[in-house]
Backbone:
């Protein structure tokens, strides 16, 4: 398996190759003054099984991934695997108001339109916000939903300070957190919310006893951090002695991480390297753990 990296995910791609001892795919890239991207596949791929590690953190990243994948198939690749550690627009998986574009579905259709190599295509997706997204892929591309649970559990155990509970920001993540708590052998907790007339959510209750406990909140992704802060405030009011956060995808746009730190509620945040933003912000408050072992294990199995 020759493993290529998209330009936004070169660090993670290198980690996957190192973990699985995969040969590296070489791509020449140039950006023109108008912003357009030139790509040329340098590696010989005819008759080879190839994979690309590349997320869709931006629209440009998604198109670069699409173009490179199409080029590899045109170059004679035997099979194609797209490893998408972060699938953008994951929260736009259904229409709530009339006329809304279900962008998660249109992106899945886009990647489904990549020409199929002789031995077929597959796409690996990690800890999706909605488990229904794989069903949006069409044709000969085979979707696989991977779990980052081993990495998440490892991060939780590293953070754990004395007695702890695993918690979430709302009841929508309760199933995920319950499974993590069962594996860790601890109690799960989540908050109940009520949406006020103006649209702002208000926490009304906490489901478990957290007095004197270290509360470790898990969420699949951190964006603005507003939900995390609301939940952390509720757990603090309920007597939590310490609050930490673990997430798969550290999207963290703008000053999101600074606001989490400034809240004074959180002792630490841990994300994986599924999103390049987490790597860019890694420091004393934000730690990053790699999902390369999960991705390399998947790629080690022949397509």
Residues:
């Amino acid at each position: 398996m020759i493993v290529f990296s998209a330009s936004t995910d070169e660090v993670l791609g290198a980690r996957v190759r190192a973990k699985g001892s995969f040969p590296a795919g070489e791509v020449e890239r140039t950006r023109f003054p108008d912003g357009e991207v030139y790509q040329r596949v340098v590696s010989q791929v005819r008759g080879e099984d190839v994979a690309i590690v590349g997320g869709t953190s931006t629209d440009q990243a998604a198109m670069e991934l699409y173009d490179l994948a199409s080029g590899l198939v045109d170059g004679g690749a035997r099979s194609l695997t797209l490893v998408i550690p972060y699938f953008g627009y994951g929260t736009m998986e259904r229409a709530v108001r009339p006329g809304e574009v279900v962008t998660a579905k249109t992106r899945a259709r886009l990647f489904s339109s990549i020409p199929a190599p002789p031995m077929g295509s597959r796409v690996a997706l990690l800890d999706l916000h909605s488990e229904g997204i794989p069903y949006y892929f069409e044709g000969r591309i085979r979707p696989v939903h991977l779990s980052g649970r081993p990495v998440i559990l490892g991060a939780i155990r590293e953070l754990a300070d004395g007695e702890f509970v695993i918690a979430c920001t709302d009841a929508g993540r309760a199933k995920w957190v319950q499974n993590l708590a069962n594996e860790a052998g601890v109690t799960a907790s989540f908050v109940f919310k009520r949406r006020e007339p103006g649209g702002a959510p208000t926490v009304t209750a906490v489901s478990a006893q957290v007095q004197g406990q270290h509360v470790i909140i898990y969420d699949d992704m951190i964006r603005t951090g507003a939900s995390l802060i609301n939940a952390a405030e509720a757990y603090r009011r309920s007597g939590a002695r310490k609050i930490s956060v673990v997430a798969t995808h550290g999207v963290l746009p703008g000053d999101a991480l600074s606001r989490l730190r400034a809240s004074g509620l959180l002792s630490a945040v841990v994300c994986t390297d599924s999103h390049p933003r987490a790597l860019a912000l890694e420091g004393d408050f934000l730690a990053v753990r790699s999902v390369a072992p999960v991705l390399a294990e998947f790629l080690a199995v022949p397509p």
Remarks:
- The radius of gyration is 20 Å.
- The chain has two domains: 2-146+292-299, 149-272.
- The first helix runs from residue 10 to 20.
- The chain has a mean pLDDT of 93.
